[in-house]
Amino acid sequence: MTDDAEAVLEAALEPHEPADAEIAARARVRERATGLTHHEARAVLEAVLADAGDMESADASVRAEAAEWQRIGDLLFDHGGPYAPEIDAYVQGQLTAREHHRG
């Protein structure tokens, strides 16, 4: 991964009010990532980056998708097991925050 792509992914993970397309992209990634190991998630990230080309000019949903794969790969690096949204503190925090925001 290039330094430019890494900077774009880090920016996509910064706290912000995500657009509906970003939320949907992250949800699709989490669904697809369920059951994957670290190496499998990293392989998908590399494929997403290759397909996207220049991450700086990619639309927000593509950047969100790549950033979520990056985050999940990092989470699984020392996890030792497959990914599950139920054990992902980041996901659980987002869901709790959205629930409070709605209510």
Write structural notes for this entry:
By secondary structure, the protein is mainly alpha-helical. It contains five helices and no strands. It starts with a helix and ends with a helix.
Low-confidence stretches: none
- The count of helical stretches stands at 5
Shape: globular
Biggest beta sheet attributes: none
The amount of beta strand, in percent, is under 5%
The proportion of residues forming helix, as a percent range, comes to: 55-70%
Q: Tell me the structural class.
A: mainly alpha
Radius of gyration: 13 Å
Overall strand count: 0
Give a short overview:
Helices cover 68% and strands 0% of the residues.
State the main characteristics.
single chain; 103 residues; mainly alpha
Secondary structure layout:
Blueprint: H1 3-12, H2 20-33, H3 38-52, H4 60-76, H5 89-102
Helix pairs in contact: 1-4, 2-4, 3-4
